[in-house]
Design goal:
Helix content is 37%, strand content 32%. It has 99 residues and is α+β, with helices and mostly antiparallel strands. A 4-stranded antiparallel sheet has the order 2-3-1-4. It has 3 helices and 4 strands.
Length: 99
């Protein structure tokens, strides 16, 4: 299993404009084969910070995700939404529960 954990930042005044774009991308990503989880969460203490968490069954599923039309649409919106700071880390795990 692959996990992507991190943050993206956008100007706080762009959050309402970004929500429908993020929603479309998240829902389409969750429908992809191999997607085990996909969510964005607004930080209640930092108005422009969005926490990202993704879980993918394998690298093939993640690579297909990167090539999807909804990800291309999402990336194309970054300039208009002011998204510039992205800090995402990929972790590989055996998928088991922590002991």
């Amino acid at each position: 299993m692959l996990l992507i954990i991190g943050t993206i930042r956008l100007p706080p005044g762009k959050l309402e404009q970004a929500k429908p774009v993020m929603q479309r991308m998240i829902l389409a990503s969750r429908a992809e084969q191999g997607c085990l989880g996909y969510s964005y969460a607004h930080d209640v203490l930092d108005a422009g910070l969005i926490h990202v968490s993704e879980a993918w069954g394998d690298r093939a599923a993640l690579e297909a995700h990167f090539k999807s039309a909804h990800i291309a649409e999402w990336r194309a919106s970054w300039a208009e939404l002011g998204i510039g700071d992205r800090k995402l880390t990929l972790f590989e795990t055996d998928g088991g529960a922590p002991t």
